[in-house]
Design brief:
Chain A: It holds the Pfam family FAD-oxidase_C. Chain A: This is Glycolate oxidase. Chain A: Its cofactor is FAD. The complex is a heterodimer. By secondary structure, chain A is of the alpha+beta class. Chain A contains 15 helices and 19 strands. Chain A has two domains: 264 residues, Uridine Diphospho-n-acetylenolpyruvylglucosamine Reductase, domain 3, CATH 3.30.465; 191 residues, FAD-linked oxidases, C-terminal domain (Vanillyl-alcohol Oxidase, Chain A, domain 3). In chain A, β5 and β6 form a beta hairpin. Chain A is globular, with a radius of gyration of 22 Å. By secondary structure, chain B is α/β, with parallel strands linked by helices. Chain B folds into four domains: 87 residues, Fumarate Reductase Iron-sulfur Protein, Chain B, domain 2 (Orthogonal Bundle); 59 residues, no CATH class; 127 residues, Glutathione S-transferase Yfyf (Class Pi), Chain A, domain 2; 120 residues, Rossmann fold (3-Layer(aba) Sandwich). Chain B contains 24 helices and nine strands. In chain B, 48% of the residues are buried. The N terminus of chain B is likely disordered. The chains are: A alpha+beta, B alpha/beta. Chains A and B meet through α2 and α12 of A and α3 and α4 of B. The complex binds flavin-adenine dinucleotide (FAD) and iron/sulfur cluster (2 copies). Flavin-adenine dinucleotide binds next to β3, α5, β10 and α12 of chain A.
Chain lengths: 470, 430
């Protein structure tokens, strides 16, 4: 329950319409795209300006109310679940593209801008914003920055952090922080911009971002290669890179995923193979043709049973759609979909996929794997049912084993989805004790009262993945 | 509003759990576009239904959120998990209606429309007669001058202003039409629709003429009744089922191979009788057979490739999809193909043609303000096409788009036409 006086003050800041506390309104802000986590906030506030955010933060600071920043709540790590109640700060109304600077090749946007809208707007001007998470139709730029989201073009173009050059953010005490600028070079002090990227709403509320743009590539082409054998596919990936080709996209789907996607989109994918690689290259026409041919040749050398180069944009789009739909198509199969985010060095791809397969068998689970092969970023996805408590326990154990192996292979616990609640238990595995200490110190410097997104990133119960809440 | 508390909506748990909360549906939901709150999203509405189911909320808590939904079902198409949103919504509405103690005037209006008027084509004709007298007797002029229309409830004045001149009371569709030349085409039964025949009788005439010119023998069964869509959306599912059974019997008796309609909304309802009656041991099979025979006019015309001769029309035309034709019946290419088969027409695709215009059954009456926000946004896209004709495929959209044209100050510049009227005009059948 929120103090009526606090509510009154919030209403004075943002207006009656934008303070929500009815039971159904609280329920609607109690979840995100992560299965099995849900907790009610006490109140929801939807500000329109940075000033309003600052005023709301000042009140929260004064009363010590937890604040959970929220974009479209599509994150897969429980990042927007109000674990300890408090105030959900929904930023959807701050959705203006403020400036597209064609001279400096930058876009300045509010945090609630939908990723796809930014894409469409800049592409209409012949410009290009590369980060493209699978959720781009609805995720927000603020959420992308806070999670340091990746996407299908990550191999060649990197992830969100490679495009954020300046930020405006409101600190927990209501002060407004400015970092970076429209500069190609800037080494003044600690890089606070980078620090806020991937901070998962635990350090400050991002209220404005300046993003770097590129010229829109002249052309792009897509191809699909099908492998009977997983190791062949993995070898093809390494060999492509070793040949100094960096495709925009180099995506992987395993047999389970292939079958499910085919059931859903029906584009004629074969059902009896172990791996599909989906590749895309962009750039100047000559270069693209050359790279695509070379990649096709490498795949054939590595025993691909079929190599198919899309001849039209429509065909290419279809192939890409298949990959974008992978996660969601899997969701059709079973009520609960638990998607993980294990990342290993590219060279360890085959052993990693093999491990996942064996672990699934050991615990008698259905785990389909797809992901960004070029980045070594895999999404083993377990299809299960929350109602089956026994199975969920096995899921937990299976993922523990999968992550142990990931770390052993020199990998990490999350490539792009963030730590949130879901991975909090594993963070120490990855960064070590001193890593945790430094991170906690940083958190304290920004947020001495610990009001921003409490319960995320850090946990009292390291190692164990907490899946079911009591 | 009732204070009775229910702990469950009775929606299948599997259906509710199917939603993985991915949020894909948020990007297509028209209510989320105008109200940036999670309660105005499909994902939110499903979460609320689930919360009621689990006992975390009471039914009445979620009424407002569900009432704000247009029922356009764009979310269903966008959903990769195959969530059956439409079915869940209908079910929830039924339970809510059961538990709601409507106020006396609302009760009276519901009783009058749902039970006494819509199911009876003859009575709907009386309404048409009444409107006709109002329009022709000079009453309309007096009413418009007096300003009394502004005082009517539910913004009726706004609707009055865009009501087309209706057909006379006596106007009647032919009971039977035999084509001139001998034909091996199957006989079709024509489904005239209650609102359609009341307000847009002319469109029905055009539709029949087109079918005739295409060589179909046609019957207009007199024992047809309302499709039941309004009833189902208002939570009166039992009434909808009764109407469905009557229509199934009607088509069986007629002996026709197809039941052709020109109303995207009614057509969708007719095509979902199998879902509506799925649990009924006596009717389930008959409903399935019925559904296979239902065709929208766009489907039947686009599929036969034997349109009457179309004369050139030199105009710029755009098309506004009907949600239920698009999202439920999946008919999107056919109308575009038909429009473009008229020589001389310059077809321009409108940005967001597939998103709801805000009409949505009685939505524009009950949620006038939200509906007009959705409409005004749509009109910007219409204006950008610079089209002189906006083609529609459903009477609700036709009224709504007429309203949009008026609100945008485009009267006399932009015409709103049902596709059947456009084709009939191009074929010089009217
Ligand atoms: C189907 C599907 C596919 C996906 N594909 C990808 C993918 O390919 N790559 C990828 O990286 N991710 C992917 N994701 C995960 C998710 O979409 C991303 O993490 C996305 O960046 C979240 O954006 P959002 O607007 O929904 O943020 P939210 O989920 O609302 O928030 C995410 C986190 O950011 C914080 N936050 C949000 N806005 C702000 C702000 N303005 N200031 C400070 N903190 C803020 C929140 O507190 C939370 O911790 C996918 C998710 C789904 C459901
Ligand atoms: S798209 Fe489907 S699964 Fe995703 S949130 Fe919407 S209804 Fe749920
Ligand atoms: S039916 Fe239409 S208005 Fe209702 S939730 Fe779905 S998309 Fe939104």
């Amino acid at each position: 329950m929120i103090d009526p006086q606090v509510k009154q003050r919030l209403v004075e800041i943002v207006g009656e319409n934008w303070v929500l506390d009815q039971p159904e309104e609280l329920v609607a802000y109690s979840y995100d795209s992560t299965p099995m986590y849900q907790e009610l906030p006490d109140i929801v506030v939807l500000p329109k300006t940075t000033e309003e955010v600052a005023k709301v933060m000042r009140i929260a600071y004064e009363y010590g109310i937890p604040v959970i920043p929220r974009g479209s709540a599509t994150n897969l790590s429980g990042g927007t679940v109000p674990l300890k109640g408090g105030l959900v700060l929904a930023l959807n109304r701050m959705n203006q593209i403020l400036e597209i600077d064609e001279e400096n090749l930058t876009a300045t946007v509010q945090p609630g801008v939908i990723t796809q809208e930014l894409h469409q707007t800049v592409e209409a001007k012949g410009l290009f914003y590369p980060p493209d998470p699978g959720s781009l139709r609805i995720s927000t730029i603020g959420g992308n920055i806070a999670e340091n989201a990746g996407g299908l073009r990550g191999l060649k173009y990197g992830v969100t952090k490679d495009y954020v050059i300046a930020l405006e953010a409101v600190l927990p005490n209501g002060d407004i922080l400015h970092t970076g600028g429209k500069l190609a070079k800037d080494v003044a002090g600690y890089d606070l911009t980078k620090l806020l990227i991937g901070s998962e709403g635990t350090l400050a509320v991002i209220t404005k971002a300046t993003l770097k743009l590129l010229p829109l590539p002249e052309t792009k082409r897509t191809m699909l290669a099908i492998f009977k054998d997983l190791t062949d596919a993995a070898r093809a990936v390494s060999k492509i890179i070793a040949n100094k080709i960096i495709p925009v996209t180099l995506e992987f789907m395993d047999n389970g995923t292939i079958n499910v996607v085919e059931d859903y989109v029906k584009i004629g994918l074969p059902r009896d193979v172990e791996a599909i690689l989906l590749m895309e290259q962009d750039g100047s026409k000559d270069q693209v043709d050359r790279d695509i041919e070379k990649m096709a040749e490498i795949c054939r050398q590595e025993q691909a049973v079929s190599v198919q180069v899309a001849s039209t944009a429509k065909e290419a789009e279809q192939l890409m759609t298949a990959r974008r739909m992978a996660l969601s198509a899997l969701a059709r199969l079973k009520p609960t979909t638990i998607l993980e985010d294990a990342t290993v060095p590219r060279s360890e791809l085959a052993p990693m996929v093999e491990t996942i397969k064996n672990v699934a068998k050991k615990y008698n689970l259905m785990i389909c794997t797809f992901g960004h092969a070029g980045d070594g970023n895999l999404h083993p996805t377990c299809l299960t049912d929350v109602r089956n408590a026994d199975e969920i326990k096995r899921v937990e154990k299976a993922f523990d084993e999968i992550y142990e192996k990931t770390i052993e292979l020199g990998g990490t616990i999350t490539g792009e989805h963030g730590v949130g609640i879901a991975k909090a238990g594993y963070l120490e595995w990855k960064v070590g004790k001193s890593g945790i200490e430094v991170m906690k110190g940083i958190k304290k410097a920004f947020d001495p009262k610990g009001i921003l997104n409490p319960g995320k990133l850090f946990t009292d119960q390291p190692r164990k993945r907490v899946v079911i809440q009591s | 509003m009732s204070h009775q508390i229910s702990l469950a909506l009775g929606i299948s748990e599997d259906d509710l759990l199917n939603c993985m909360q991915c949020g894909f549906c948020l990007s297509v939901c028209p209510t989320y576009k105008i109200i940036p709150k999670e309660t105005a999203t499909p994902r939110g509405r499903i979460a609320l239904m689930k919360a009621v189911q689990d006992g975390g909320l009471v039914t009445k808590d979620i009424t407002e959120s569900l009432d704000l939904c247009l029922g356009c079902r764009a979310c269903e198409v966008a959903c990769p998990s195959g969530v059956q949103y439409g079915t869940m919504l209908e079910h929830a509405k039924e339970v809510i209606t059961e538990q709601t103690n409507f106020s006396a005037p609302v009760k009276a209006v519901r009783w009058l429309f749902l039970k006494q008027l819509l199911p009876y084509p003859k009575r709907m004709k009386w309404i048409r007669g009444g409107i006709r007298i109002y329009q022709k007797s000079g009453l309309q002029k007096i009413a418009r001058k007096s300003g009394i229309l502004k005082t009517l409830p539910w913004h009726m004045g706004a609707f009055e202003a865009v009501l087309p001149e209706v057909a006379p009371f006596r106007a009647k569709l032919p009971k039977r039409v035999e084509p001139n030349a001998k034909t091996n085409k199957p006989t079709v039964a024509f489904f005239s629709g209650c609102i359609q025949d009341t307000v847009f009788h002319e469109t029905n005439v055009s539709t029949m003429k087109l079918l005739e010119a295409a060589g179909f023998p046609i019957v207009t069964p007199e024992d047809q009744t309302c499709c039941g869509a309004v009833h189902a959306h208002a939570g009166e599912v039992d009434l909808a089922k009764d109407l469905a059974k009557k229509n199934i019997e009607m088509l069986e008796r007629s002996g026709a191979s197809y039941l052709v309609n020109n109303q995207g909304g009614c057509g969708a309802m007719l095509k979902e009788y199998d879902k509506l009656l799925a649990d009924d041991p006596v009717w389930a099979e008959r409903a399935k057979a019925f559904v296979k025979k239902v065709k929208d006019i766009n489907e039947i015309l686009a599929e036969i490739d034997e349109l009457p001769k179309l004369y050139p029309m030199n105009v710029r035309v755009t098309y506004q999809d009907s949600c239920h034709l698009t999202n439920v019946q999946k008919v999107t290419l056919q109308p575009r193909k038909l429009i473009q088969s008229i020589p001389g027409i310059e077809y321009v695709e409108m940005v967001g043609a597939g998103t709801c215009c805000g009409s949505a059954g009685t939505y524009n009456i009950v949620h006038y303000d939200e509906s007009m926000q959705i409409l005004d946004a749509k009109m910007i896209n219409v204006i950008n096409t610079q089209a002189e004709i906006v083609v529609v495929a459903n009477p609700g959209c036709q009224m709504q788009m007429r309203m949009g044209v008026q609100r945008a100050g485009l009267e006399g510049k932009v015409r709103v036409m049902h596709i059947a009227d456009l084709l009939a005009e191009a074929a010089r059948l009217k």
